[in-house]
Specification:
The structure holds 2 protein chains of 2 kinds.
Chain A (H helix, E strand, L loop, with lengths): L1 H19 L1 H18 L4 E4 L2 E4 L18 E2 L6 E9 L7 H22 L5 E7 L2 E9 L5 H8 L5 E4 L19 E5 L3 E7 L5 H7 L4 E6 L2 E7 L10 E6 L3 H4 L1 H14 L9 E4 L4 E3 L8 H23 L1 H24 L3 E2 L1 H22 L4 H28 L6 H30 L7
Helix pairs in contact in A: 2-9, 2-12, 3-7, 8-9, 9-10, 9-12, 10-12, 11-12
Chain B lengths: L1 H29 L10 E7 L3 H10 L5 E5 L4 E4 L4 H8 L8 E8 L3 H30 L4 H29 L7 H4 L1 H17 L10 H34 L4 H50 L9 H15 L1
Antiparallel strand pairs in B: 1-3, 1-4, 2-3
Classes of the chains: A alpha+beta, B alpha+beta.
Chain lengths: 444, 324
């Protein structure tokens, strides 16, 4: 009886020991397995006459319309597309200095629009070739509808509101808008513009809505159908705008882009004086650096990490070598999975940031495998977690306060992912692996 | 060897501030970077049916304002010169097999300067704020003088390394066309130097006094402990990346390695400067005492020639200081 009682009383202790012991190691290895599976490419091989394809869990499985789940081919190391938008000065005689001044202004305005919409991977510059004054837009390969996007970005941005029947301009102006110009979404009408008019302009507003809707014209062409949708809209003078462009009816992503570019026009004090017309011919610019595939980069990375692992085995011993290998695999699979999830675009800056942060991670792992006692391990975990939080805060602040970040955006996304990884690993993975593989077997 | 070490230390103490001032001067003189992606330029497209003609023309064409030429794409870039002068220069040796298309390219470079400056300040403030939190949490109340001593090594090394790196780029841009890619390591430099200081912050006992010397020592020892592993990582990573991405990426990786060297030098300077400052007073004392000791030695008897206890204690103290 006593023996049975002692066995029963020892069960909670054994359970606690199990969960704090080998189960931690099991969880850490399971983590590697799950994320490793997520980052596997589409592999297939032949057994006899049958072709067997390994199931790869593409993130697009979560949503059939999702475009997530793959890296995007960015700038520098993949070809890009160039569209030219020529400025039309019309028949009036303009001096060369005025033309150059306008071109500089147009460049600045377009750059601001690109920044406001968050299109950090589009480059724009202006060119003067003979009598042709133009804006040149460079897009990564994954952009669609680039001629239309160029047209939107290089428009004058002159906003008027017109009657749908006779196209006569209405009394309400964009200066009568009392609220922010928002992009809203409802399941029935999908994404659309939304804003309120001043209460003083209620009469003009009611006249505009006498035919149920009116048009918002940009550069003289009706672009949005403005109407009231919900019951509360009438009390707050709210109006919603649906884009009329046919491309926006089928392409959800382009619809959002269309609306966001339109919103940027409202932030400009005056529209541009001259219009620009995009050239329908798209020029393909070859990659500035070698043209590669993601697979090749993955192979090179694997070779490098194997070299580092071999070095660790030789220098630090077998146990520490294994711990290093598992920790390296942990951060590799986790960061790659997260980068795939956010559809990161692979550019040279992306690669530089990834390899630099990998080098930093390798140094941190070496710090972990050289701990002597648990107190040191706990300190290391705390440092890593805090570093992770710090990097995440820094990245969020950069994205908020440095909107003109341009090419550095790719680096920031990588640093953010690594910061999040450090937070997770400092809390659990690296500590569990170090404790169970190294410290547990350390001779006292 | 000691003399050599002392000479090197003196050189380091003098050279780093001189380089810092020169860098500022160069940046002002070049108005940033002389030949670069960040300034307006004139592009000349060299067009021909035979690509060999294009390559030959580009390789043989030399002009003092030629910033860069790309024989693969057939473009020559000029900066700090007007369009008219470019056309005149091209008209000197006309080639019937070649068509030349001259374009003036305008860029919006203010954006880069503003965005880098905001990033520079933001990174410093974010790290400084978190480091303050960590130190405060570990030590409790912290005096203002201690806080200043704490941030001094970080802010000085942060500023020195960034300015020297930019100055070096400005110098290189006088001879080599700087692209946006080669500029991006500056962002990583700012983050890396902050990460090193972040790790140096840990390990202060609550009772330990915060002095510039101790912080400089911790900062430098942390950097030293990571430098060799960093070199090993670089030896493993960079050749593989250069092979896979092409030799055109060498300047980018080289810029990154140079940034690490600059970080190392700037932190070393702080440590050497702080350490030397404490050591100078004892060195001065020894110099003053030396002539008196020499006169006495000729008169000393064998008993009196034995080193005194006081001298032994002083020597022990000096050894302790050196160890620190």
């Amino acid at each position: 009886m006593k023996r049975l009682l002692s066995i029963l009383l020892s069960i909670p202790t054994k359970i606690r020991a199990f969960f704090s012991g080998k189960f931690k190691l099991f969880l850490a290895l399971l983590f590697i397995g799950v994320f490793g599976f997520l980052v596997l490419p589409n592999l297939s091989f032949k057994i006899n006459d049958q072709v067997v394809t390994l199931p790869s869990l593409d993130f697009s499985a979560t949503n059939e319309n999702s475009i997530l789940g793959n890296f995007r081919r960015g700038r520098d190391i993949f070809p890009t597309q160039e569209v030219k938008s020529v400025v039309d000065f019309g028949l009036e005689e303009t001096s060369e200095e005025s033309k150059i001044e306008f071109l500089n202004l147009a460049l600045k305005t377009v750059s601001n629009r690109i920044t406001r919409v968050g299109l950090h991977d589009i480059d724009v510059r202006s060119e003067i070739s003979g009598n042709e004054y133009s804006l040149i837009f460079t897009y990564p390969e994954y952009y669609k509808n680039i001629v239309e996007t160029t047209r939107l970005l290089s428009r004058k941005g002159e906003i008027t509101f017109v009657n749908p029947s006779d196209q006569q301009e209405l009394a309400i102006k964009d200066s009568d808008i009392a609220s922010n110009i928002d992009i809203a979404y409802t399941p029935n009408i999908q994404s659309h513009l939304k804003f309120n008019y001043n209460q003083d302009k209620s009469t003009d507003f009611l006249i505009a809505l006498s035919q149920q809707y009116f048009y918002m014209s940009i550069d003289g062409i009706p672009d949005f159908q403005m109407f009231q949708y919900e019951q509360t809209d009438s009390t707050t003078n709210t109006v919603r705008g649906l884009p009329l462009n046919t491309l926006t009816q089928t392409d959800i992503a382009f619809r959002d882009l269309y609306i966001n570019i339109t919103r940027s026009y409202f932030t400009e004090k005056i529209p541009l004086k001259y219009a620009s017309t995009p050239d329908q011919n798209i020029k393909t610019i070859p990659a500035q650096y070698s043209n590669l595939s993601v697979r090749y980069i993955a192979i090179v990375s694997t070779v490098v990490f194997i070299a580092l692992a071999v070095f660790t085995f030789i220098k630090f011993g077998i146990r520490k070598g294994f711990a290093f290998s598992f920790m390296t695999l942990t951060y590799l699979v986790f960061t790659v999975a997260l980068l795939k999830y956010i559809s990161a675009s692979i550019s040279l800056n992306f690669l530089i940031a990834y390899f630099i942060m990998s080098a930093v991670s390798t140094l941190l792992i070496w710090r972990f495998i050289n701990v002597e006692e648990k107190a040191d391990l706990n300190l290391g975990g705390k440092q890593l977690t805090r570093l992770g939080i710090l990097l995440m805060i820094l990245c969020l602040l950069i994205l908020r306060f440095v909107p003109t970040i341009g090419r550095f955006y790719d680096m920031v996304s990588v640093i953010f992912i690594f910061g999040f990884s450090y937070l997770v690993f400092g809390f659990f993975n690296f500590k569990a692996l170090t404790e169970q593989i190294i410290l547990k077997y350390k001779k006292r | 060897m000691n003399k050599l070490k002392r000479t090197l230390k003196t050189l380091l103490i003098i050279l780093v501030p001189v380089t810092f001032l020169l860098s500022i001067g160069l940046l002002i003189y070049s108005k940033g970077f002389h030949y670069s992606d960040f300034k307006n330029r004139i592009e000349v497209n060299v067009i021909s049916d035979n690509p060999e003609n294009v390559k030959n023309f580009i390789n043989n064409f030399n002009h003092s304002n030629k910033a860069y030429s790309n024989s693969e794409t057939g473009v020559i870039y000029f900066q700090h010169i007007g369009k008219v002068q470019v056309e005149e220069a091209l008209a000197v040796n006309p080639d019937e097999n070649i068509n030349l298309e001259v374009k003036e390219v305008l860029v919006n470079n203010k954006v880069l300067i503003e965005s880098y400056f905001v990033f520079f300040v933001l990174t410093f403030v974010t790290f400084a704020g978190v480091i303050f939190y960590i130190v405060l949490k570990d030590r409790g109340i912290i005096k203002l003088s201690e806080l200043i001593k704490f941030y001094l090594p970080y802010s000085i090394s942060y500023l020195i390394s960034s300015v020297i790196f930019l100055g070096l780029f400005s110098l290189i841009s006088r001879f080599y066309y700087l692209s946006e890619f080669e500029f991006t390591p500056i962002y990583l430099l700012n983050i890396l130097i902050s990460i090193v200081f972040f790790f140096a912050v840990y390990g202060f006992d609550k009772e330990e006094e915060i002095t510039t010397l101790i912080i400089g020592r911790k900062y430098f020892s942390k950097l030293e402990s990571y430098t060799l592993p960093f070199i090993i990582c670089a030896i493993c990573f960079i050749p593989a990346l250069v092979i896979s991405l092409g030799i055109k990426t060498i300047p980018v990786w080289a810029a990154f390695l140079v940034s690490w060297i600059i970080i190392y030098v700037s932190v070393r300077w702080i440590y050497t400067f702080a350490f030397t400052r404490f050591d100078l007073s004892s060195v001065r004392e020894r110099i003053k005492r030396k002539p008196a000791k020499k006169e006495k030695r000729s008169e000393l008897t064998s008993e009196e020639s034995r080193p005194r206890k006081k001298d032994k204690d002083k020597k022990k103290k000096k050894k302790k200081n050196k160890k620190i």
